[in-house]
Amino acid sequence: MARRPGLVIREKRLNGIGAWLGSSSPILAEFASGDAAQRVRTFSETAPDDVTAALSFLGAIEGAAIVVHAPRGCAAAALAQKGAAAFAVTGLDQRDTIIGSGEALARTIRSLVERHRPWVVFVVGGPVVAINSDDIRSVAAELTETLGIPVLQVQTDGFRSRIAATGYDAATKVALALASAPFALGREDVVREDVVNVIALDARVGDGIATLLEPLGLRANLLPGGANAASFELAGKALLSVPFDGDAGTAFAQGLAESAGVPLLLLPPPIGLSATRAWSEAVAAATGRSARLQADHPEAERVLEGARVHVALSPALAFAAAGLVEELGGAISALTIDYLDKAHLPAAKAFADRWPEATLHVAAGQPFEIANLLSKINPDLFIGPPALAAVASQAGIAAFGVAPHRLIGAGGAEWLANKARNALANRAFAARLAGSRSSYASGWYRRSADWHIKQEVR
Q1: Is the pLDDT of residue 95 over 50?
Q2: Of 378, 342, 341, 345, which Cα lies nearest the Cα of 359?
Q3: What are the backbone dihedrals phi and psi of residue 302, each rounded to the nearest 5 degrees, phi first?
Q4: What is the SS3 assignment for 64-130?
Q5: Could you tell me what percent of the chain has a pLDDT over 70?
Q6: How confident is residue 298, by pLDDT bands cut at 50, 70 and 90?
Q7: Calpha distance 58→211 (Å, rounded)
Q8: Which of 64, 134, 222, 367 qualifies as a FRET site for 103, CA 20 to 30 Å off?
Q9: Domain 10-27+36-182, what architecture?
Q10: For the chain, what is the mean pLDDT?
Q11: 183-286: what fold?
């Protein structure tokens, strides 16, 4: 059987980098020159890989099933996701890796289908099967015919890319096959519905976006978070696709534009009052609606006046959240994002212009670097995922955890203002935690936070 074309990793497709610490200007100058140099970490505490990202994307689909084709430990990521999809692991051992694991894969798929009756099965491979070149594709094709439901291979390997978001691209390929299937024969009789495809991983995003679309007479079709078979069928009938988190959703929306003719509208996420107005106006214009917007929104309460804030979120959301911090009167002292690539350059340039002295930290899964950085810049407030907010609290810094769906629209601005007010008013909590023993040796704090980041030698 002919080998399927390989997946282009984010480092090559978008010149993605996963390691940087410093001001924004030098790395943006490298991008402007045409090729940002890759950096490597001589020590990495932990980091997600493309398998983790693919499981995050596909695990949110309701009624689906996932087989992690790998040794048992590789399924830990699926267990941690606690998504809507059922999952199983083939649990490969030494014998399977030597003589082949096709039978183990087929057996696991059949058992999972019998127990959960999914409408689609995704097979996510790990590093072991990628190295052994197991023929997942043939097993998937055979079971698609015998089981009567799609069994689809996801091209992950866990080691070729340092940018976990490459796994979103792998998941997008198979998800597009589901959304594009009704349009594969070039149908021209498609009747568009008053629907906007909102591409987001978290099903909770749907409620916030629906509130923004309702005044425009539009409904949200959320993909893949909380989606089911009907959601994928509806995707090709939508008026528009708008990624909420462009890092995970842009490739999927682009694919829908090519396969089903659904226009793609790339917008900063509706985080903050100004961004929310701009988002609603752009969607209204693109769908021929009258922008019946809430023009009477009060100005954001400037609860962060004079405060220096460190924000840590995924790239697309972090730059947007920085704008919300400014609306609340705060100044950005540091921004931590998982990775940086060409798609982020407009937002990154605007950030660099507004906060030229701010530290840009590119790192995924490196809390030891964040702990060191916090000890150097000592911000007044830290906003990020709960696990990193705990690191900041232990450093004696007021902090709170945030999930992206909390930040949407005017309600998101109010929510963040309340959380910030409470965190800054309760500094005694962080001060008490600061007296506890640090997770890292004192010698680490005497070094620069980028001690282990080195430019890759080609």
Answers
A1: yes
A2: 378
A3: -85, 65
A4: EEEEEECCHHHHHHHHHHCCCCEEEECCCCHHHHHHCCHHHHHHHHHHHHHHHCCCEEEEEECHHHH
A5: 93
A6: low
A7: 25
A8: 64
A9: 3-Layer(aba) Sandwich (3.40)
A10: 90
A11: Rossmann fold (3.40.50)
- Cis peptide leading into 404, omega within 30 of 0? no
What DSSP state is assigned to residue 342? G
The whole-angstrom separation of Cα 389 and Cα 10 is 28
- Calculate the dihedral angle through the C-alpha atoms of 373, 378, 383, 388, rounding to the nearest 10 degrees: 40
Looking at residue 188, its pLDDT comes to 61
| Most confident range, picked from 3-12, 79-88, 349-358, 423-432 | 349-358
CB contact burial 231-247 (16+ within 10 A = b; e otherwise): bbebbbbbbbbbbbbbb
**One-character DSSP codes across 247-266:** HHHHHHHHHHHHHH---B--
135 — pLDDT class (breaks 50, 70, 90) = confident
**DSSP assigned state of 352:** H
Burial class (CB in 10 A: 0-12, 13-18, 19+), 375: middle
Look up the pTM and report it. Answer: 0.93
At 247, list the tokens: 């890092």
pLDDT in tens, 382-413: 999 999 999 999 999 999 999 999 999 999 99
What count of residues does the chain have? 458
Superfamily (CATH) of domain 308-455: Nitrogenase molybdenum iron protein domain (3.40.50.1980)
Q: Measure CA 323 to chain center.
A: 19
pLDDT per residue as tens digits for the range 371-383: 999 999 999 999 9
User: pLDDT digit string (tens) for 159-201?
Assistant: 889 999 999 999 999 999 998 766 654 556 678 899 999 999 9
**What per-residue confidence (pLDDT) applies to 216?**
94
- How many whole angstroms separate alpha carbon 29 and alpha carbon 50? 28
Strand 151-154 and strand 120-125: the pairing is: parallel
DSSP state at residue 305: T
Looking at residue 37, what DSSP letter applies?
A: P
Q: Whole-angstrom Cα distance, residue 397 to residue 423?
A: 9
Spell out the domain ranges in the chain.
10-27+36-182, 183-286, 308-455
Q: Contact 264/312 with Cβ under 8 angstroms?
A: no
* Six token digits for residue 408: 């949407």
Q: What is the pLDDT of residue 347?
A: 96
Count Cβ neighbours within 10 Å for each residue of 339-368 and write b for 16 or more, e otherwise. Answer: bbbebbbebbeebbeebeebbbbbbbbbbb
216, amino acid identity:
L
Is residue 221 helix, strand or coil? strand
